[in-house]
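Let us practice reading a record.
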Amino acid sequence: MRTALLIPLVLTLVTGCATGRSAAGPQPEPEKKFSMRTYYMAFLRRGPAWTKERTPEAVEAGKGHMANIERLAKCGKLVIAGPFDVPADAPPDALAGIFIFDVATREEALALTAQDPAVKAGRFTIEVLPWYGPTGLTYEGHIPPEPGLSCTP
């Protein structure tokens, strides 16, 4: 009689171990705490040197701008960057894009934007504001920081 009772118990335990579940069923995942923190959002506007024409200077500034975005992402300071879909009839100082920085101060975010070749060339101007967003802000395909990489050009 004991053997008849032990066999179902042993099978239940073995099945639970083999599937990674307890005999009581699936365990709930631990609750994740949601928290918020300050980031710095830089708004890029068309600057005094903005032009629709793809002049050699504009192309070079654009290449430098994209390289700067990649460098700042790789050094862990830039979380997200991207352009706005600006209509053809937009004003000369229209919003052109954003950077979201993971830095300690507004001054650091301003210093990082001042390094951008398109900003230096006058194609963009920058306004930096603190932004309160979710801790751990990221996206699929995010460039992971490279430890020890310098954020200066």
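A brief commentary: Residues 56-74 form the longest helix (19 residues).
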